[in-house]
Amino acid sequence: MAVDWKLLIEVRERQKRTAMEAVARDRAAADESLASLQQAHAQLQQQIDAKAAHWQATTGALSGGACSVAQLRQASAWSGALDAHIATAATGVAQAQGLHQQREQVLQESRQRMRAAAGEVEKARQMQQRRLQQQRRLQEARQEAVAEEVASVAWSSRRIS
């Protein structure tokens, strides 16, 4: 069975290019998910900072003696609302973290496929080189055999004459 090494290498190169394109797409998706994760962390921190600022303001009002029980209830209710915002933001961080981990895993798998495709290209090239070397050795052996035959015939013809 004769193998068209040039065609095989072209096919392997196409597979490698496709794998490289997939890595680029997956890298962009992973970068996007990282940006979303960072944004979710920022939103969580913003909610935590808002609650801290709320209680600092409440503490300031208490130290001045200008805070009633009704205002304390309202501050407590608002603190509960801020806790809900923090919980929502924390859920957003967890979801963004999960998505980012999935995207990173997909990226790693794409990179593995690209490395495998690159290995297949190199393997096909090496096999082509071996085949070419084998053909050259065979051609050289044939030329040597012909040269020996010519020399043998020439020697025989001189001996006879």
Description:
With 161 residues, the protein is an all-alpha fold. It has helices at residues 5-63, 69-160. Helix 1 runs antiparallel to helix 2 (69-160). It is rod-shaped. The mean pLDDT is 92.
The rounded distance between the terminal residues' Cα atoms is 48 Å
**Overall mean confidence score, pLDDT:** 92
Gyration radius, rounded: 38 Å
Element-by-element helix/strand order: HH
What is the CATH topology descriptor? Answer: Helix Hairpins
Helix tally? Answer: 2
Beta-sheet strand percentage? under 5%
Tell me, briefly, the overall form: rod-shaped
Number of strands: 0
Q: Judging by the overall fold, what is the CATH architecture?
A: Orthogonal Bundle
| Residue runs with pLDDT of under 50 for 5 or more positions | none
Integer count of domains = 1
Largest sheet: none
| Helix proportion range | over 70%
In CATH, what is the class?
Answer: Mainly Alpha
Structural class: mainly alpha
